[in-house]
Amino acid sequence: MAPEKSRASNSHARPGTKKKPETRKSQPKQPVSLSERLKRLFTSLCAQIDGGHFTNAIKTCNKILRLEPTDRDALQTKLFLLLQTEQYDTALSLISGENDNPERAFERAYALYRLHHESEAAGALSDIREAKKEHRGVVHLDAQLSYRQGSYQSSVDLYSELLETAEPQSEEHSDVLTNLTASQKHLDFIAKDFLRALDALPAAITSALESSPPPVQSSASATLAVLTQPEDDSAAPKKAKKVRTSRVPKGVVPGITPPPDPERWLKKSERSNYGLGMKKRRGGGGGATQGAAADAPPAPSKSSGGGHSKGKKKK
Question: Which one of 40, 98, 196, 227 is separated from 50 by 20 to 30 angstroms, measured CA to CA?
Answer without folding.
Answer: 98
